[in-house]
From TrEMBL:
This is LysE family translocator. It comes from Pseudomonas berkeleyensis. Signal peptide: none annotated. One of its GO terms (molecular function) is amino acid transmembrane transporter activity. It is found in: Cell membrane. The lineage of its organism: Bacteria, Pseudomonadati, Pseudomonadota, Gammaproteobacteria, Pseudomonadales. It is a multi-pass membrane protein. It comes from the Bacteria.
Amino acid sequence: MDWHLLLLFSAAFTAAVAVPGPNVAFAVAQALKHGVRATLPGAFGFGLATAVHATVVLLGVGLLIHDNRWVLTYLRWGGGIYLAYLAFGSFFATSESSDAKTEMSSQRKMFADSFLVSLTNPKGWLASLLIYPGFISPHFSYAIQAVALSLTAMIISLSIYGGYMFLAHKARAAFDNKAALNKVTGVIYATVALCLVLLPY
């Protein structure tokens, strides 16, 4: 394993993930609405999606996506429609129950939602297609490098999205009105949906 390349990959991937985009906005909205405890599983959802991105790209399947950009169009519209649904739900949300069963269900939903949003985000796919191949050395085992890059990317994703969620949770204290908080998160969901379907990638 070329540790110098791994270090450079870490810097490049961190920069790509940390730049605010649909994933970051979604993570912030989730933490604002539900708090960091309920949404922390969402960070693992982003981490798992990162592993899927890495696996697809490093197995060479990513070349199919690169040559067939219509796949990204379907992904972005699917994600946009789902986020629009979440926005609608937030605007008309009622007070939520806080029992243990509801909280566990909410945590599972946070994980699934984050995973789905990340997989339907064309920015994530394009970043993966551009970054991973450039940090593979021909002088070392491809399999070992692929595993090392994938694990590193997962750790970075977990850390950054978890960090954004924690910061959003801190800002959540400024909202003492649950209805207003739901409206804010609804606006964020709707904005992310528009970004997915309208912004070029």
